[in-house]
Write a structure and sequence with these properties.
Blueprint: H1 7-34, H2 39-48, H3 52-76, H4 84-100, H5 109-114, H6 122-147, H7 158-184, H8 186-197, H9 202-218, H10 225-251, H11 259-272, H12 284-296, H13 300-328, H14 342-362
Helix pairs in contact: 1-12, 2-13, 3-4, 3-10, 3-13, 4-13, 6-7, 6-9, 6-10, 6-11, 7-8, 8-9, 9-14, 10-11, 11-12, 12-13
Length: 363
């Protein structure tokens, strides 16, 4: 375990560097998105928008939160059936943290907040989030590649986006293959990861091997076949609701997106927000939406109404996540004071579990 006295200053310095880097990425992304755009025209597009469609979009955001929460509960069930009240609170706060914290540090909030040792260990909670992300990455990557088939060849940016979609899909498929291999042969997976990391840093490789071992141990319990089928069905519904909601809101800005076009915009958005950025995914979110719209609705309207749509879509999603998560910060289910230490706590939890596991093996 790292020295307790030395860890907090290093952690604070590391977090400060991440914040600065995230803000820099957001600033560059915003500059690229707005470069050469008519800011007055964007402001006029915001004023001219039909905000009745924004009100119609809000129920979609509520459904998205509910589907995400129920789906996550399915992955946790083999380890512990978390009461819906606690699951909902942790999901709301965790997704809010993911949206607001830079460099996607909020990914660690949910597994840390829901963990309840010894019933539900950090490794199992973290494994559930990773499996969820892998499933989403593969689904949206394939969705993007299929939807791009409807985009005419020669459309500016199509080749770059298509390449990015293929790379993202392959990356998540490779990660899935690693998880399946790790599930079947834990020792081989840890050995392989250690060999890859050792030339870079033997000390970090040794430390990471223990945490990876504990993480893989959390994969050992998987849902039944029926629950796995239900998980994938909910995944499809979850992303369908996302697509449908984006279509509805787009009408308020003059864009009549068909299903394939909306899937393209969503797919580009998902790839775009994978880039670590500042709080709220500012810049990368707007840039990805405008880039996606440029593939399916080329023309001067994208430079004004498209940018306005991207900003309202971003504000609606962030606003909804804060509105849902903020009240739960003060509920009995959440330890507010430890939320920002989630990444360090997850790391420490994995190290503790690996120590316990090895001690048990030695008995």
């Amino acid at each position: 375990m790292p020295d307790a006295a030395a860890s907090p200053p290093r952690a604070r310095s590391h977090r400060a560097a991440q914040v600065v880097a995230g803000l820099a990425i957001s600033a560059v992304a915003l500059w690229l998105t707005l470069r050469g755009k008519d800011l007055g025209g964007i402001g006029q597009a915001l004023r001219d928008a039909d905000y009745r469609y924004l009100w119609l979009y809000l129920p979609f955001l509520a459904a998205i939160h509910l589907l995400r929460t129920v789906r996550w509960g399915l992955l946790l069930e083999p380890v512990a059936k978390v009461p819906f009240g606690r699951l909902n609170a942790v999901s709301a706060v965790g997704i809010m943290a993911l949206s607001l914290l830079p460099f996607r540090l909020g990914e660690f909030a949910r597994p840390y907040l829901v963990a309840d040792r010894p019933r539900l260990r950090v490794s199992s909670a973290l494994s559930s989030v990773v499996v969820e992300r892998v499933a989403d990455g593969i689904f949206t990557g394939l969705l993007l590649m299929v939807s791009l088939l409807s985009v005419p060849e020669g459309t500016p940016g199509l080749r770059v986006i298509r390449t990015a979609g293929v790379m993202v899909s392959l990356a998540f498929v490779a990660l899935l293959a690693f998880l399946v291999g790790a599930y079947r042969n834990r020792a081989l997976a840890v050995s392989l990861a250690t060999r890859i990391a050792t030339p870079i840093s033997p000390r970090l490789a040794a430390r990471g091997a223990g945490m990876l071992d504990a993480f893989i141990h959390g994969l050992r319990l998987v849902p039944s076949g029926r629950k796995v089928a239900l998980f994938f069905a909910l995944t499809a519904i979850y992303w369908f609701v996302n697509v449908w909601g984006m279509q509805v809101l787009a009408r308020g800005f003059g864009f009549d997106l068909g299903p394939a076009a909306a899937c393209t915009v969503l797919g580009v958005l998902v790839v775009g927000v994978m880039i670590p950025a500042g709080p709220g995914m500012v810049g990368t979110f707007q840039g990805a939406v405008v880039l996606g719209l440029g593939l399916v609705a080329p023309g001067p309207g994208v430079a004004t109404h498209g940018v306005a749509y991207a900003n309202v879509l971003w504000a609606a999603q962030i606003g909804a996540q804060v509105a849902v998560g903020l009240p739960f910060l003060f509920s009995r289910h959440i330890e507010l004071g430890r939320l920002f230490s989630a990444p360090r706590e997850v790391e420490a939890g994995l190290e503790d579990e690996e120590t316990e596991y090895r001690a048990g093996q030695g008995r």
